[in-house]
Specification:
The protein is built from 14 helices and eleven strands. It has about 350 residues and is an alpha/beta fold. The chain folds into two domains: about 180 residues, Rossmann fold (3-Layer(aba) Sandwich), CATH 3.40.50; about 70 residues, Orthogonal Bundle (Helicase, Ruva Protein, domain 3). It has a five-stranded parallel beta sheet with strand order 2-5-8-1-9. About 5% of the residues have low confidence. The structure holds adenosine-5'-triphosphate and magnesium ion. The site of magnesium ion has 3 residues, from α3.
Length: about 350
């Protein structure tokens, strides 16, 4: 079954054909995702810079495309991977160059900031940008203008800039690896995408959504996954997050015989990941920092409150009811642990 044709088909599917990216394409429940939907709504009214942070496969590019389509659907969305090419090339990719500005520059070339017109330049893996280019990007963000490599004319930037990273940029700033002034310029609005393992309630709706997409593409009628698969999914760490879920489902659907995907349709699931430590601080509220130690009651309480806020879409009143405490007590605990949980 693993013919070249099939590999091609799978690759093609995973490459995302030119679908439209709308808010409806973002599956997410729970307070954290609700906040993110709110932010998407707000930034879609303006052209502010947005910094999207999250682990690999959490949907950073999807969110950027949705915001772009909300704001300027008829303009280009241009993604630039800042880690993929060497510094000098990246500079001419972004800013363009004049004819003869370096060996091989046989003609004037427009950069992405110009090509994007009134659309979006999406700077992916921004953490990998060299300090030299960081300085040049900062100027673009401050003055909204630049010069092409080897050129004297000043070019105006109309494009909106979004950036994404799966690194801890703030940490990199502290370590002096990323310019703090650029960080603050990019971080005007931040969207922090939670890893899939900390929003397990989204696994089932994601499966439904992804299966209907895959059914369309593959002309299949897969209705869901077996209980056994679901249980495995719910306990899995998902280091590759939603992309990993999507890839697993596509591969399973290609080979599946029945309408329900069973464990045998997922030969790769959890092969090496079951041993991965759970990094998320709320995933298991009883796991101590060091093995063999125990947590204090306060630590457990704090983690439990964070978990319930993060993983449900309950409002304050409902959470108090679930926890069996009064509203003032709840507020006091939020205060004590420095948990911010704002609702209108
Ligand atoms: N909330 C979501 N609902 C539905 N599909 C999603 C969601 N988040 C991500 N996806 C899908 O998962 C896949 C990976 O998303 P995307 O490429 O945006 O992730 P990423 O954060 O940019 O990953 P990487 O860091 O590896 O580049 C895409 O096919 C995307 O459509
Ligand atoms: Mg990406």
């Amino acid at each position: 079954l693993k013919s070249l044709e099939m590999e091609k088909k799978i690759d093609g599917l995973l490459m995302e054909p030119s679908r439209n990216f709308r808010v409806g394409d973002i599956i997410g429940t729970g307070n954290e995702m609700r906040e993110i939907f709110k932010t998407i709504g707000t930034v879609s009214q303006s052209r502010t810079t947005v910094l999207i942070q999250g682990e690999s496969g959490t949907g950073k590019e999807l969110i950027a495309k949705v915001i772009h389509n909300n704001t300027s659907p008829d303009e280009p969305f241009i993604a630039v991977n800042c880690s993929a090419i060497v510094d000098t090339l990246l500079e001419s990719e972004l800013f363009g160059h004049e004819k003869g500005s370096f060996t091989g520059a046989v003609a004037r070339k427009l950069g992405k900031f110009e090509l994007a017109r009134f659309g979006t330049v999406f700077l992916d893996e921004i953490s990998e940008m060299s300090v030299n280019l960081q300085a040049k990007l900062l100027r673009v963000l401050q003055e909204m203008e630049f010069e092409r490599v080897g050129g004297k004319d000043t070019v105006k930037v109309h494009a909106r800039i979004m950036a994404a990273t799966n690194k801890d940029l703030r940490g990199m700033v502290k370590e002096g690896k990323f310019r703090d002034d650029l960080y603050y310029r990019l971080n005007i609005v931040a969207i922090n995408l939670p890893p899939l393992r900390s929003r397990r309630q989204d696994i089932a709706p994601l499966i439904d959504y992804l299966l209907s997409k895959i059914n369309l593409d593959l002309h299949k009628k897969i209705v869901g996954v077996s209980g056994e698969v679901m249980e495995k999914f719910m306990n899995y760490v998902w280091p590759g997050n939603i992309r990993e879920l999507e890839n697993l489902l596509v591969r399973a659907c290609v080979v599946a015989k029945g309408q329900v995907l069973g464990v045998n349709d997922f030969p790769d699931l959890g092969k090496d990941s079951a041993i991965l430590p759970v990094k998320d601080d709320t995933a298991d509220i009883f796991t101590p920092e060091e093995p063999g130690k125990f947590l204090t009651l306060d630590q457990v309480e704090e983690r439990y409150i964070r978990k319930i806020i993060k993983e449900t879409d309950k409002n304050k009143g409902e959470i108090c009811e679930t926890l069996g405490i009064s509203r003032p007590t709840f507020e006091r605990k939020l205060d004590k642990y420095g948990i911010s949980f704002e609702q209108e």
